[in-house]
Design goal:
The complex is a heterodimer of chains A (about 140) and B (about 550). With about 140 residues, chain A is an alpha/beta fold. Chain A is built from 5 helices and 5 strands; from the N terminus they run βαβαβαβαβα. The chains are: A alpha/beta (about 140), B alpha/beta (about 550).
């Protein structure tokens, strides 16, 4: 039997809006996914190092401060530098349509917006993310 | 004298009505198959009447506007005397860009300014720090030194406008900057008016923009209270904010309860610091959210006024009506808006703004339709402001005071919310007060439970969100959004570099040394902060100096 999905949910940057990420964290747990939540005010470096240490299958980033272009890209760059770009990055927040296009072109798996249901997120995860294989 | 006609007892008549009139109809055609609850999931009855208000006493429960317990309003003439302040929150990019938006808003009839600072300023970090990368000017204006504050208010006479500043952990520093700008304009600090949010307790509970741990944070606040009482007497020194508690997902009752519990925490801290209640309580103001459930929101504001009056009178033992009255600013609920079909947000905002006005707000910010996507454009903020102006000048709502007072439903709901909120406050008292409750994560976990519960109701369709889980359609994004250029960051770093090159380094070092000394001893921090500000010390230099003494707070990450 495949092991459970492990997902790290992170709040990079300085904003403190964690309602969305916490709701998502609880919904994913209820859906049988293993969730690691970083807490607030994390740098991209802290998030990437936690993702690698925890051997997660994906990283979900929540950004509401407008700094998404920088922060998403930075997390992906750092993952690539560590040879861990098979860890899928997805996220959500207050993110304009044009930026969503650009971020997806850069490899972000999906961006969820206010109003998207947790079911939508879970369905997307189950369709697009698979356990990265047993590295133990 | 004619004898009063003796009517039949409505409670008995209600039973008759249910049996004879209602039941036959329900047998033929039942009620809709859904739960009749508020947006906060409080159960609502089919019909309200005098049977819901058996112990109701006009003078004790309502009284008159401008008199204890202030249920019907804090001022005797309310909007017939003066409309609420229309205060649109604004701030983006550099100080000069925001200055232009302020001048535009003033020219369009806004009556007060409100500063949105960018995240680095709110967290006490300067624009040139690596932690600020990508954040500069994005969801507020960048303020690093006094120079930025000078540019922000350039050409705006500070004795004529009032300004609200939304900042908490570094509030003392930003207020000092505002005082210094006023002085440079030749306006003495006793002439300036406005509000600084300065509500750190709700940061730990909900908004999560903290710097120092709770206890030293309260000391900074009481220093500010003592300073403002003498030097800035027209300033509202704390805007005790339920807004963010609600945005974090609380119910209306939780918003009411935790906000007033924070208020109790500040009053107690002020008293413990040796300031008399009547010296600072009149300058405390409140800030509430206006969500979609119209009547629940109106009841919340009315209950808040009555509860605060009772708390100040009974718990803090003062009969000074200026200390008892709860004045409040309202912002329509950002969290209620949807990215889907964004034009619908204008309607949501209108309903919410009407609730705020019927609830007796002193000041109102209406959100713009595009705020789930970005900061508002000039067009969208104009529609939001016009919403207020139409309510004020066309709808007739502002013609009379507390128009819903006496409604069986509204009074019953007001009573119920008061009771449930006092239950929470009692529970917090039993834990040893609000700081102890925060330290064990009580309000945080209550709110996150409520947020999750609400999301599940939306996901299952038990609660409707138009355009999101009902009446959904495929759409192309029909609106333009404001884009903050990434060049702003480079520009702001250059401006900061210029200030750093021009200032007197020795003077900066001396003023920071004096600030550290004041922090280590129990000397009031405000005069020291003011000196450092005037020497163009950066916000981050001052914050780091204080961090060295007070330490830093880290997210416990409650799930």
């Amino acid at each position: 039997m495949a092991r459970k999905l492990r997902i790290l949910l992170g709040k990079p940057g300085l904003d403190g809006h964690d309602r969305g990420v916490k709701v998502v964290a609880r919904a994913l747990r209820d859906a049988g996914i293993e969730v690691i939540y970083t807490g607030l005010h994390q740098t991209p470096e802290m998030i990437v190092s936690a993702a690698i240490q925890e051997d997660v299958d994906a990283v979900g980033l929540s950004v509401l401060s407008g700094a998404h272009n920088y922060l998403f890209t930075k997390v992906m760059e750092l993952l690539a530098e560590q040879g861990a770009d098979d860890i899928m990055v997805f996220g959500g927040g207050i993110i304009p349509e044009d930026d969503i296009e650009t971020l997806k072109e850069q490899g972000v798996g999906e961006i969820f917006l206010p109003g998207d249901t947790t079911d939508t997120i879970i369905t997307w995860i189950n369709t697009h993310i698979t356990p990265r294989g047993d590295n133990q | 004298m004619t004898q009063k006609k003796k009517g039949t007892d409505p409670s008995k008549e209600k039973k008759r009505w249910e049996e004879k009139t209602l039941t036959p109809i329900l047998k033929k055609s039942s009620e809709q198959n859904r739960s009749f609850t508020t947006v906060s999931d409080a159960k609502i009855d089919r019909l309200y009447g005098p049977w819901d208000l058996e112990d109701f006493d006009y003078m004790t429960d309502l009284g008159f506007p401008g008199e204890y317990p202030f249920t019907r309003g804090v001022y005797p003439s309310m909007y017939r005397g003066r409309l609420w302040t229309m205060r649109q929150f604004a701030g983006f990019s550099t100080a000069s860009d925001t200055n232009k938006r302020y001048k535009y808003l003033l020219s369009q009839g806004t009556t007060g300014l409100s500063v949105a600072f960018h995240m680095p300023t709110i967290m006490g970090v300067c624009s040139d720090d690596p932690r600020s990368s990508g954040e500069v000017g994005k969801c507020g204006v960048a303020i690093d030194t006094l120079r930025d504050m000078e540019d922000l208010f350039d050409g705006i006479p500070l004795e004529k406008v009032t300004t609200s500043m939304t900042t908490n952990a570094p509030a003392a520093i930003l207020l000092a900057m505002y005082v210094a700008v006023a002085e440079k304009q030749g306006v003495s600090s006793d002439k300036i008016g406005g509000t600084i949010q300065n509500d750190i307790l709700k940061e730990y509970i909900a908004q999560k923009s903290w710097i120092f741990p709770p206890r030293p944070s309260l000391r900074i606040i009481t220093d500010l209270l003592a300073f403002a009482k003498d030097k800035v007497p027209r300033w509202n020194t704390i805007s005790i904010s339920g807004y963010h508690i609600r945005e974090a997902g609380s119910t209306a009752v939780q918003e009411l309860a935790f906000t007033l519990a924070d208020g109790i925490g500040y009053v107690q801290a002020g008293i413990d610091a040796g300031i008399s209640v009547d010296d600072f309580a009149p300058r405390l103001s409140f800030f509430f959210n206006a969500h979609n459930d119209f009547f629940e929101e109106v009841a919340k504001y009315r209950a808040a006024r009555r509860m605060w009056a009772k708390i100040i009178k009974e718990r803090f033992k003062t009969d000074n009506p200026r200390s008892q009255l709860l004045r409040f600013h309202t912002q329509t609920a950002g969290c209620s808006l949807t990215a889907q079909q964004p034009l619908n947000n204008i309607i949501r905002t209108t309903i919410q703004a009407m609730a705020a006005v019927m609830g007796g707000t002193q000041s109102l910010h209406t959100n713009s339709l595009d705020e789930t996507l970005a900061l508002p454009t000039e067009n969208s903020v104009t529609v939001a402001l016009r919403t207020q102006q139409i309510i004020a000048e066309e709808s007739g709502i502002a013609n009379t005071i507390d128009p819903l007072g006496g409604s069986y439903f509204v009074e019953a709901l007001t009573n119920r919310m008061e009771k449930e909120a006092f239950d929470y406050i009692n529970k917090i008292d039993d834990m040893g007060g609000i700081i102890a409750a925060i330290e064990r994560g009580f309000p945080q976990l209550e709110i996150s439970d409520a947020a999750y519960h609400y999301q599940k109701q939306l996901d299952s369709g038990e609660k409707t969100l138009v355009g999101v889980n009902k009446y959904v359609m495929d759409e192309d994004l029909p609106i333009e959004t404001l884009v903050i250029d990434d060049e702003v960051e480079q520009e702001q770093k250059k401006r900061l570099g210029k200030v750093l090159g021009e200032r007197n380094a020795e003077e900066v070092a001396n003023t920071l040394g004096a600030l550290k000394h004041a922090a280590e001893n129990s000397e009031n921090l405000m005069p020291r902060i003011l000196n450092a500000v005037k020497a163009y010390a950066t916000l981050q230099e001052m914050v780091d100096t204080l961090k060295g003494v007070f330490g830093e707070y880290r997210d416990p990450g409650y799930l």
